[in-house]
Design goal:
Layout (H helix, E strand, L loop, with lengths): L3 H8 L6 H7 L3 H5 L10 H22 L5 H11 L2 H10 L10 H5 L6 H18 L2 H16 L2 H5 L4 H11 L4 E11 L2 E10 L2 E8 L2 H23 L1
Antiparallel strand pairs: 1-2, 2-3
Length: about 230
């Protein structure tokens, strides 16, 4: 794990209590490998950060877009705080290089997993809130989402991967389906593994914190495979 002072530079926030940031970066697998360790992991911070992030984004959307009805505000919020969006922000800040994980998780590149990155982002939001206050946490959150907030219509037009895969399959007169491969709890985290099939072929496999997330991720990977093939055939 890299020196967290480098991460503070990326966050543009220096912690008074650096142990809060360390905790936000500590995966359950790391503490599980430490025998008789009193160390906690980021799960409690993630619980708090999820609520804080949801509140900040909801309040911002309400104030910023008075012309939007409740339904549109809900859609925008779901686009901003979904696993994909949060993991993209976390990756842009290089969180994957600072997460403390068990050896086995690191070998399987658990630090690159979207669900982990999203959780850590929420935990870091909570850590900033506890180290400072809500205003500082709000400034940090909004600094990461400013570009998306400037283009709400573009955000709303981001298409559902499962719907896109359905359209592509139908255009080729093929069936499509999702097959459950595995579901389990690993290091205190539930995750699901799903295959995306088009016709009789398994085009992609993906995992997520819920079956729905796994299917969306598998669909997105399957779409890329189909588009790559079309590019090679043209």
């Amino acid at each position: 794990m890299q020196d967290i002072r480098l991460l503070e530079e990326k966050l543009k926030y220096q912690f008074k209590d650096s142990s809060l940031l360390e905790l936000a970066l500590t995966h359950a697998s790391y503490t599980n490998e430490m025998a008789n360790s009193p160390l906690e992991n980021y799960q409690r911070l993630e619980f708090l950060g999820d609520a804080i992030l949801d509140s900040i984004i909801a309040h911002t959307l309400y104030k910023r877009f008075p012309e939007f009805r409740e339904g549109k505000l809900t859609q925008l919020k779901s686009k901003l705080v979904c696993e994909r969006s949060l993991s993209e922000v976390a990756k842009s800040l290089d969180f994957q290089n600072f997460i403390r994980m068990g050896h086995g998780e690191l070998l399987s590149q658990g630090n690159e997993r979207a669900s982990v990155l999203a959780d850590v982002f929420e935990a870091v939001v909570a850590a900033i809130f506890l180290d400072a206050d809500l205003d500082v946490a709000r400034r940090f959150v909004l600094s990461q989402f400013e570009a998306k907030l400037d283009e709400p219509e573009a955000l709303l037009q981001q298409r559902n991967a499962k719907s896109m895969l359905q359209e592509l399959a139908q255009a080729k007169s093929l069936t499509h389906a999702y097959v459950d491969v595995e579901s389990k709890i690993d290091a205190g985290e539930a995750y699901f593994v799903v295959d995306a099939l088009v016709g009789e072929e398994v085009l992609a496999r993906a995992q997520g914190r819920s079956k729905k997330e796994a299917e969306q991720s598998a669909a997105a990977k399957a779409i890329l495979r189909l588009l790559e093939r079309e590019g090679l055939e043209s």
